[in-house]
Structure formats: C-alpha cells, structure tokens
Amino acid sequence: MDAPLPLPMLMPLGDRAFLIRFGASLSEAANRAAIAFARRLDLRTPEGVEEIDPNLVSVLVRYDPTRVVPERLAGELRLLLSGTDDARSSPPRQHRIEVHFGGEDGPDLDSVAQVLNLTPAEFVAAHNASVLRVLTTGFAPGFVYCGFHPEALHLPRRTEIHTRVPPGSVLFAAGQTAITATPIPTGWHVIGRTDFANFVPDRDPPTRLREGDEISFVRAGS
Known about the structure:
Blueprint: E1 9-13, E2 17-21, H1 28-43, E3 49-54, E4 58-63, H2 70-81, E5 94-101, H3 109-115, H4 120-129, E6 132-137, E7 144-147, E8 162-165, E9 169-173, E10 176-179, E11 184-186, E12 189-193, E13 214-219
Parallel strand pairs: 5-13
Antiparallel strand pairs: 1-2, 2-4, 3-4, 5-12, 6-7, 6-13, 7-10, 8-11, 9-10, 9-12
C-alpha cells in the first residue's frame, strides 16, 4: 500500500511555467493524483495557461506572462488543488494491444523470464494478466509508460544499452511496460513488438494513447 501523499508542491520554473509535484518518487497514488489534476485543469483552464503537461508524478503548466500575473495564476492553481476531481466520473478509455513476443521482435524475453524464474510462456501469461494504466507519455514522441505490474514481475533495467530499437518495440523494466513510437536507444528489456502506432504526426492530438487509459496486452493472433 502506498504511503499517504504529501501536500502537492507548486514550484515556479522561470517566468513562464509552474511545476506541481504530487510525490518525490513514482507511486500509484502520486501518478493518479497528477493525472486527475491535469484533467481538472483541462476542464477549468485558467486564463493565460498555454500548455498542461502531466508527467509521472507532476504536472507542468506553461503560461503567457503577458496575459496573467504569476501570483494570480499560482492562487488559481492552489484553489484547483484543493477542489474535488471532476474527471473521475469519466470511465477510462480501454485499448487492446497485440504483441509479437520473443524471437527477433523480443530478444530479451528469454533472459527476462529466466531472471524471474519463469518459462517464456509463463512470463508472457503473467505480463498479460494485469490491465495496466498509461502512466504518462513522453521521453520521445509517442513513447508511453504503462504500469504497474505486481512486485513478482519487477526487475531493473539492463546494464547494457540497446543502441537502437524500432518503433513499436515493447519494453519491460521497473514494474512497467513501455511502447516506443520512434527509433530510440534504450536500457529497457525488449520483450516484443506491436503494430500499434501511438504517434501519428498528422493527427490532432498526434498520440492515440493518453494518461489514464487502460491497456490490455495480448499475444498477437490470440
């Protein structure tokens, strides 16, 4: 069980942004609080706010200082922090994402299963047993973090870096599964690949998944 959350911290970042932190480290409660506050801001966006960017345990709020005085905006943000969550009544969007596990698509699958004292088939079944939440998007265009797996499936990232993995790579580490949308280097374990494309530049918004969505991973063809 997560420890009680500390009071949110509202910190100025220069003269054009505030960062609101809901925890010093990643937890289920801190992530849910950050997502809920970002939804509340979307519904009641204060004057002068130009961007609302939720992260794993924080929300970045960018604003135009020619349209709003920082002290006034800080006051409005604190009022919203003390309010109730208007977004919880909306059910999360659900997605079913097919994954090609192992082989050339997932070169680290066997080693991950071995470290966890599972067969590859047992690991895939355990991985797919939980419905995960989108914790945040970022790091690279369309890159998405999903969590959380049970403690029995936790293991650290690799000690060696994959210098380049293709879009659609399904990554695993630290109790989370991630999906790439562009070619990137990574220290995560590559366990599979999906044809699901989360980043489509011509779309508005360009990412198909959003924070709080629920993800069910299934073996491709099942």
